[in-house]
Write a structure and sequence with these properties.
This protein has 141 residues and is of the alpha+beta class. It has two domains: 5-87, Sandwich (ATP Synthase, domain 1), CATH 2.60.15.10; 90-139, Single alpha-helices involved in coiled-coils or other helix-helix interfaces (Up-down Bundle), CATH 1.20.5. The chain is built from two helices and eight strands. The chain has helices at 92-107, 112-139; strands at residues 5-11, 14-21, 23-28, 31-35, 42-54, 60-73, 76-81, 84-86. Strands 1, 2, 3, 4, 5, 6, 7 and 8 form an eight-stranded mixed beta sheet that branches. Helix 1 packs antiparallel against helix 2 (112-139). The protein is globular and about 55 Å long. The N and C termini lie far apart (33 Å).
Length: 141
């Protein structure tokens, strides 16, 4: 276990994951970050997207987050997500519906705030759909 880093993924709904990892990948606002044990300390914002956790057994677990922040310490990574879910628990129909609603809101542009909300919703839905597609490919169909 000496070559692992402890990972906590939490949101307002509760803890989604807690355990050791060989590697963690998070969607930082300026680009994806790969985090290995003994990573330099870092605190940064996260965009909507997938968090990948490679466990010591070689298994890769996927999580979807709706944005948030990450604190990285040499022996610990804490993802504080606005919303979070295991990729396998995502609802493809709901994500497609949210994407369609957001696209309709963008077509009906009425105010700057509504456009910003629609763009954020569209980004969240697209990130969920990407995580669902990646999980489907990992399972082989």
């Amino acid at each position: 276990m000496a070559n692992t880093i402890h990972v906590d993924i939490v949101s307002a709904e509760g803890e989604i994951f807690s355990g050791p990892a060989e590697m963690v990948f998070v969607p930082a606002v300026m680009g994806d970050i790969g985090i290995a044990p003994r990573h330099a300390p870092l605190l940064t914002a996260l965009r909507a997207g997938e968090v990948r956790v490679k466990t010591p057994g070689g298994e890769e677990q996927l999580f979807w987050i709706g944005g948030g922040g990450v604190e990285i310490q040499p022996k610990m990574v804490t993802v504080l997500a606005d919303t979070a879910a295991r990729a396998r628990d995502l609802d493809e129909a709901a994500a497609l519906s949210a994407k369609q609603r957001a696209e309709e809101m963008l077509r009906d542009r009425t105010g700057a705030m509504e456009v910003a909300e629609a763009q954020a919703e569209l980004a969240r839905a697209a990130a969920q759909l990407k995580a669902i597609e990646k999980l489907r490919k990992m399972k082989g169909g």
